[in-house]
Amino acid sequence: MASRQDWLEAGLTVLSEDGAPALTIERLCGRLGLTKGSFYHHFKGMAGFKTGLLAHFAAEYTTRYIDEVERSGGSPLARLEHLLTLVLAEEDERSRVEIAVRAWAAQDGEVRATQERVDALRLDYLRSLWREAGGAEADAVPMARLLYLVLIGAGQVVPPVAASDLREVYELAMRLAPDGRTRNPGQAAGNVATPEADS
């Protein structure tokens, strides 16, 4: 029997491939090759599944990243670099899910509320990293928005911006960070260039 996690993962896959209208018990059962009895073992109905799916989306594509970055430790800029690496490693999959959830949010209040919470949490985390890095308080909100909007926008253009190209954009943006003038593009956070390297 499939686990609750299996059903939720199948839900994200169906959502990203065919959109919210395709999220039906029949489609999910077909995806997993299981009967409705297995579905109802974990969920009372599609309303409960939708709530679980939204919580899974928030956990998988926001909380998981933040928790892993915080466990890794390091300086604020090292953590920001780590966050970027995690997100870009899953960019294709993450972007497809993100686009589908945002389209769904335009038509469903519960989904919209979840997306608003996710956006707020992501922006708050980026602001906190900027402040910890010693960035100007007045720049904290604009910088968080810059980093976040680049990510969201990269998945909306056609074709989407490739992860490697997106990394180049972020390297450029990171030069605005407090020690950005001493770092070369692609240089790991914490590896400060020597004065000779800047001359």
TrEMBL record:
List, alphabetically, the Gene3D superfamilies matched: Tetracycline Repressor, domain 2
Pfam families to which the protein is assigned, alphabetical: TetR_N
Q: What PANTHER family does the database record attribute to this sequence?
A: HTH-TYPE TRANSCRIPTIONAL REPRESSOR NEMR (PTHR47506:SF6), TRANSCRIPTIONAL REGULATORY PROTEIN (PTHR47506)
Q: Which residues bind DNA?
A: 24-43
Where is region (Disordered) located?
Answer: 180-199
Q: Which keywords belong to this entry?
A: DNA-binding, Transcription, Transcription regulation
**Classification via InterPro entries:** Homeodomain-like_sf, HTH_TetR
Q: What is this protein identified as?
A: TetR/AcrR family transcriptional regulator
Question: What sequence ranges are listed for the domain HTH tetR-type?
Answer: 1-61
